[in-house]
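Complex 423.
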Amino acid sequence: MHSLSYVSENSHSAWATYLAQVERVLPHLGDLSRWADTLRHPKRALIVDIPLEMDDGTVRHFEGFRVQHNLSRGPGKGGVRYHPDVNLEEVMALSAWMTIKCAALNLPFGGAKGGIRVDPRELSIKELERLTRRYTSEIGNIIGPQQDIPAPDVGTNPQVMAWMMDTWSMNVGATSTGVVTGKPIHLGGSLGRVKATGRGVFVTGTAMAERIGLKVQGCCVAVQGFGNVGSVAASLFSEAGAKVIVIQDHSATVLNDDGLDIAALIAWQQQYGCIAGFPGGRTISSDDFWLQGFDILIPAALEGQITAERANTLQCRLILEGANGPTLPEADDILLARDITVIPDVICNAGGVTVSYFEWVQDFSSFFWNEEEINARLDQIMTQALDAVWQKARALDVTLRTAAYAVACERILIARQERGLYP
Ligand code: NAD
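Predicted structure with nicotinamide-adenine-dinucleotide bound:
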């Protein structure tokens, strides 16, 4: 078995999950599989030390990462995560999933990702700004509008992107809005970007529900993670007449069999920073989240949540992967055997990178589109990508995940082959 010297033997790591997913597509790549090893090798991985002067005058050091997994089809694209569990292998896997996602959607990008091993909730706003600016400077020589374009992910937001854009611009001596996406609207951000990932989950989810004969109106939905992705997906399903009966975040799991009031929960979260204590439902244990009966499950938090054990007992018909890498490979097999349909992350949560692509294009042309235009283009790209993957899955008789990898890897490896090896 192939391995990199800097990768652990942990078979449940996000990188191991990604490699297992690649393994499944190899038999379907024909002659292109000759180039497939490139998918197992991140092109570039940068580890940086970020010294930060805290408000109390002490100095702490944080680990920062930026990985460019594959740039065969275009500049790197991928978010920046601030979370205490961030590590090199996780960032590698997240960057690789971006390579697959951009190719599956046919966006002209390669895959990249970054992160800092930090709990942003423990920092003051000024400390967060200094951390972000130093991180941006440290990775500054490998990012850029034509090289690699960061965006928000877990623990980061439009304000963090504004600081990144400003720092990079200061360092190069010119305002460069296209260096990051997911920026505030006044700084070259795109309308529709904040809701784009959740919207993509909803658009692909409703299209798939129709295909498998599941009526969204009145169906029961469970959502893990109530951040940028989970809260938007929950509101759109709720507005479409579904009952969102259970939601889990890092603080609590809240259940209401009649359907949670999502607008009220969002208002609660804005006030208290989490869903714990919400009076519109009862709190259950985090393990019980997985044992509730529902039709649609939306994991929208972190990787590795749907284990084999959970896959064996889950009572649902459709899983919409809002999060990156929420399902372990052995769980995929069980879900297939149990006839539970999974829209894989590389399609389901691609709404964010699709509108990031629109933002990048708008920044380059300095011409901005209205929200209807953006949503219409987003819906069209997402449903077309889902259709292509559905057809591929039927043609190859494989899961939607392997089909998405087949569509994506063909594009990546053809690009690799046509460019040839340098020198
Ligand atoms: P976020 O920081 O806005 O929200 C994360 C949510 O997950 C929070 O509600 C948090 O409380 C919850 N959470 C954290 N740890 C948890 C745990 N152990 N159990 C239950 N809940 C937990 O992040 P986000 O941007 O919504 O991203 C969520 C997922 O979606 C990530 O996997 C991310 O990579 C993926 N994603 C995000 C985007 C985007 O545009 N933001 C795009 C594609 C994919």
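The chain is about 45% helix and 15% strand.
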